[in-house]
Amino acid sequence: MPARIHVSVERQSLHLALANGVERHYDVSTAANGAGCETGSYCTPTGDHRIRLKIGEGCPKGAVFRRRRPTGEIFDPELAERFPDRDWILTRILWLEGLQYGINRASSVDTLRRFIYIHGTADEHLIGRPVSHGCIRMRNDEIVDLFSLVPTGIAVHIE
């Protein structure tokens, strides 16, 4: 069986299965607005995807990213207090690309252009509940684990 990631919006879970038999299960947080592919919907896109880019290798846990680049900051309570409304993207980024034209690729439904990621979060206490702005949030230790196991191009199915 080829390597793959399966994300369930209903169960708020991510399952990784690698060709060598390694499997992992993680709780995640998907969009507060539910599932959907339209630009501006703040929904988690569904269907077949792949990891287009892996960003953040070697960055420390809690590293803050803005526009997919590390800022040099490490998330802490003082930073959270200074920027209370920021949608924190931390530790690692797995940038998703849709593979289904008209469903999650091209025009107004393009996952890549929507900047949909699997990433670490400051809101680890909310993992397991749909509260994101469209991305798939993970606990920081777990995104480090997932990042270390998956290659660029691995299939990701979101349902």
UniProtKB/TrEMBL annotation:
GO MF annotation list: glycosyltransferase activity; peptidoglycan L,D-transpeptidase activity
InterPro entries (alphabetical): LD-transpeptidase, LD_TPept_cat_dom, Transpep_catalytic_dom
Keywords: Cell shape, Cell wall biogenesis/degradation, Glycosyltransferase, Hydrolase, Peptidoglycan synthesis, Transferase
Domain L,D-TPase catalytic: residue ranges: 3-159
Pathway(s) this gene product operates in, as recorded in its UniProt entry: Cell wall biogenesis; peptidoglycan biosynthesis
Annotated catalytic residues: H119, C135
Origin superkingdom: Bacteria
UniProt GO BP: cell wall organization; peptidoglycan-protein cross-linking; regulation of cell shape
Listed SUPFAM superfamilies: L,D-transpeptidase catalytic domain-like (SSF141523)
UniProt xrefs under PROSITE patterns: LD_TPASE
GO cellular component: extracellular region
PANTHER family named among the record's database cross-references: L,D-TRANSPEPTIDASE (PTHR30582), L,D-TRANSPEPTIDASE ERFK_SRFK-RELATED (PTHR30582:SF24)
Family: Belongs to the YkuD family.
Protein name according to UniProt: L,D-transpeptidase
Origin species: Comamonas piscis
